[in-house]
Amino acid sequence: MTTDDAESPIERITRREQEITRALAERDLASDADERSDGHHHPAEAATDADLRERHLRDTLRFRDQLERLRRARAAIAAGTYGICIDCGAPIPEGRLVALPDAERCVSCQSLAARRR
Ligand SMILES: [Zn+2]
């Protein structure tokens, strides 16, 4: 595996956090604009607005969840447990951590966990 110009885990996590924080800030601006326009809509548009608001909320929760996972990954780095599967204790492959810096499980434990849900 080549490690040329590889980011350290903390750099990857920081970059993700910045991306998500920026996306959240942009959403908050968009939602402020939505709220200011409230009360001027034709009733027929209300359902669409509710749908949009619901989608917006779901996205916001998803971003918050990602930030929480990144925060846990950061704590794991500090604790020296980063990159170790929380279920089986096996090392998580580097390639997986590059793609998913907040991965807490190896691929097989993650698919088991997803099935449990
Ligand atoms: Zn595992």
Task: Write up what this structure looks like.
- It contains four helices and no strands.
- It starts with 8 loop residues before the first helix and ends with a helix.
- Helix content is 67%, strand content 0%.
- The mean pLDDT is 87.
- The chain is mostly helical and 117 residues long.
- It has two domains: 7-82; 83-117, no CATH class.
- The protein is elongated, with a radius of gyration of 19 Å.
- Helix 1 (9-36) packs antiparallel against helix 2 (46-79).
- Zinc ion (ZN) binds next to helix 4.
Bound ligands: zinc ion
**What is the H/E order?**
HHHH
Poorly predicted ranges (pLDDT <50, ≥5 residues)? none
Question: What does the radius of gyration come to?
Answer: 19 Å
Helix content: 55-70%
> Termini, distance in Å?
34 Å
Largest sheet, described in full? none
How large is the share of residues in beta strands?
under 5%
> What is the oligomer described by this structure?
single chain
